[in-house]
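Field guide to reading this record: the first block holds the primary sequence, the second block holds the structure written as discrete tokens, and the final block holds curator observations. Each block starts with its own label. This record concerns Short-chain dehydrogenase/reductase family protein, catalogued under organism Mycena metata.

BLOCK 1 — SEQUENCE
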Amino acid sequence: MSGIVPTFSFTTTADEVATAFAAEIEGKNVLITGTSLNGIGFETARVIAKYANLVIITGYNAERLERSVDAINKEVPNANVYPLTLDLSSLAGVRKAADVVNASPEPLHVLIHNAAAAIGPFGLTVDKLENQFATDHVGPFLLTKLLAPKLLAAATSEYTPRVVFVASAAHALGPGVDFELLAHPDPQTYKSSTAYFQAKSANILAAIELSKRSKGAINAYSLHPGIIATNIARKEEAVADLQALGILGPDGLPDHEKFQWKTLPQGAATTVAAAFDPRLNDKPGSYLEDSSVANNSVAAHSSDPVNAEKLWSVTEKIIGESFIF
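BLOCK 2 — STRUCTURE
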């Protein structure tokens, strides 16, 4: 990166970050999960597509994926955007999508785990896992494992591939990961907001452990995007929980008195920084807020290397295979 080193803030937009790191994005192949319109994953894909060689966008609804592709291509006619159907709540669905990516000749420079399940009632996936944890952690873990050879193929003497986990500052509101409940979900003790907090804790721990285990071959980061009025905040099943947290008011609209909200462009900025800021090269495993390193903001239970190692081992047992470099 040449020129003046940019300084980012709460109000920095994804476009501004992408413009600052256009040289780093150029020629890169990027996969982003959860890219429906009116979401930060879509905004991330939109700004990256202006410079990248290839942007693979994923979602479980093929029709919505096509709408996202059309919207990006309308703004960036020369963008190379590939839609990939991916159901993160299904281990078989993850394997199917990974097969498609692995069948292509291109390496993968950046993998961005943006997709998340809506906060809502207890539900089990086809694999008998709690839905939020399956979608937010177990599916992304398996996808990373299956695409690791693609990521490693992108490495050069000057470039280290990256994996980015979109977590949340809300991880600190929970007790950390309950390892017993991961493999044995219990509807009697389930609380939707707590399940969300735990899933976001897992994202942070996964970034720490992935960076450690890869021994410098892959750099992983996690982040808090900010509080944003995305599609998830509009889902009917999530409203009551978000109101209980004070994020939404009694009318179901954003509470601007208690919290400072970000726009979608501001909300996607930190993801773009985590994926491309070269100043992070020597800070693997870091957690970001407002497009800058904020490791001091991570709760103790979500920065504990013992918890990170345990989460890795438990997740390997759940998916039935080892993740070894």
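BLOCK 3 — OBSERVATIONS
The CA atoms of residues 163 and 220 lie 5 Å apart.
The first strand starts at residue 29 and ends at 33.
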